């Protein structure tokens, strides 16, 4: 069989992609946000239980060390913020093992930026402005939804109070899954499944949708706050267009002790699930102890946005060489 | 058979699901913002032909199905079974049940090659070639001169299929038919 060596994207698409990248850089230059380049490798990695990190062995000044390919440039960029960089952005190659599909590639480009002193609302507005500036036509207005409200609308349940047994049976039914395969799963997995299978496809249709007030258990590296109903929620937002998740933003957690606890909890959960533990990024924790300015940050899957802007069916249509073709 | 994990699912892979052999039509990774990954998989049940959607946890696996597509010529029917012969020169014959034949029964013609799908060496479905040439055994007499106008009439073909044909077609003519749609294409 002949070896397929040709690019995944057409050359015309790669020219369009380059033009959009110029627009991204212009957008931040006009706003005095500094472009930075941080390492792909790190001595610490993401402990997130649902991300699978790649790692490699390198001969370093300390002998042979395991170094982690970053799942996003977040930790290094936060160390720059703690050092007083001010607002920064990066177009960063990031790696998530096993993620291959029409919207995923193991190696991908993350557009990530941080805005010291910004509120979540200010960052949502800036994110929407950037997205709209890259699309060929107006996608419709920016519409805000609360996580709880979406579950009421599309599933007629309250995500915070519905008993776990009911969540499991509803998720299995709506996702066409066997009940037994969810028998051991917790609330978040059931909610995630309902969110991705039932709700997400409805979002970002003739509008740009932003979702707020995720459950506190889904905070990752965001702060938590009490919402108008008194429920503890994550200070986090996600942006959707055409049913596709484009961006994930946080009111950034800057409390070093809380961050250390979350890393430890993740690794404890990893042990429970029989997953490999990930080395905690001690340098990030030290930077937070020194002090990182309050503010908001967001990670946007720029490959997906380019895919939507150019009307391509699959992510690989905008990548020079997708992972199966690398 | 080997087991295949969700990462290896791709269009055309044959797997066992709930006791039936299935062919994967589409496999999409679904990963919410911060949560666990799932795979939404479209599968065609090879016994019923129906396409359904299922969700799996990423990393779950399914047993492979011993399914093969082989080219075979149609030979004859004895009323109970339909007999086909491999075209690879082995002269090996397979008997196919009516249930496995399904709609393809109306497109059978001797010496035409069909794709026979075997599961554990038993025929479970028969796919006719996209185009087949069949003789008209019964239709109303053709209307002379009416070659350009629209309008159609039913015609019964030698295989038993009834298709719509243009008014100018006569009994005894051989026609090219698209078996996927059952449409008349042209005179052969």
TrEMBL record, chain A:
Aminoacyl-transfer RNA synthetases class-II family profile domain boundaries: 17-324
Catalytic activity, EC: 6.1.1.6
Gene Ontology molecular functions: lysine-tRNA ligase activity
SUPFAM superfamilies reported for this sequence: Class II aaRS and biotin synthetases
Enzyme class: ligase
One Pfam family, short name: tRNA-synt_2
InterPro entries hit by this protein: Aa-tRNA-synt_II (IPR004364), aa-tRNA-synth_II (IPR006195), aa-tRNA-synth_II/BPL/LPL (IPR045864), EpmA (IPR004525), Lys-tRNA-synth_II_C (IPR018149)
Domain of life (superkingdom): Bacteria
Nucleotide-binding found in the keyword field: yes
Keyword annotations from UniProtKB, A to Z: ATP-binding, Ligase, Nucleotide-binding
Alphabetical list of PANTHER family matching this protein: ELONGATION FACTOR P--(R)-BETA-LYSINE LIGASE, LYSYL-TRNA SYNTHETASE
Record-given protein name: EF-P lysine aminoacylase GenX
Organism this protein belongs to: Vreelandella boliviensis LC1
TrEMBL record, chain B:
Superkingdom classification of source: Bacteria
GO MF, any single term: translation elongation factor activity
NCBIfam families: efp (TIGR00038), PRK00529.1 (NF001810)
Modified residues annotated as N6-(3,6-diaminohexanoyl)-5-hydroxylysine in this record: 34
Keyword Glycoprotein: no
Gene: efp
Ranges for domain Elongation factor P C-terminal: 132-187
InterPro entries with a match to the protein in the record: Elong-fact-P_C, NA-bd_OB-fold, Rib_uL2_dom2, Transl_elong_fac_P/YeiP, Transl_elong_KOW-like, Transl_elong_P/YeiP_cen, Transl_elong_P/YeiP_CS, Transl_elongation_fac_P
Keywords: Cytoplasm, Elongation factor, Hydroxylation, Protein biosynthesis
CDD domains hit by this protein: S1_EF-P_repeat_1, S1_EF-P_repeat_2
Subcellular location: Cytoplasm
Organism: Vreelandella boliviensis LC1
Protein name per the record: Elongation factor P
GO biological process: peptide biosynthetic process
Domain annotation Translation elongation factor P/YeiP central: ranges: 69-124
One of the record's GO cellular component terms: cytosol
Residues that span the membrane, as ranges: none
Pathway given in the UniProt record: Protein biosynthesis; polypeptide chain elongation
Function according to Swiss-Prot or TrEMBL: Involved in peptide bond synthesis. Alleviates ribosome stalling that occurs when 3 or more consecutive Pro residues or the sequence PPG is present in a protein, possibly by augmenting the peptidyl transferase activity of the ribosome. Modification of Lys-34 is required for alleviation.
Post-translational modification: May be beta-lysylated on the epsilon-amino group of Lys-34 by the combined action of EpmA and EpmB, and then hydroxylated on the C5 position of the same residue by EpmC (if this protein is present). Lysylation is critical for the stimulatory effect of EF-P on peptide-bond formation. The lysylation moiety may extend toward the peptidyltransferase center and stabilize the terminal 3-CCA end of the tRNA. Hydroxylation of the C5 position on Lys-34 may allow additional potential stabilizing hydrogen-bond interactions with the P-tRNA.
Keyword Cytoplasm in annotation: yes
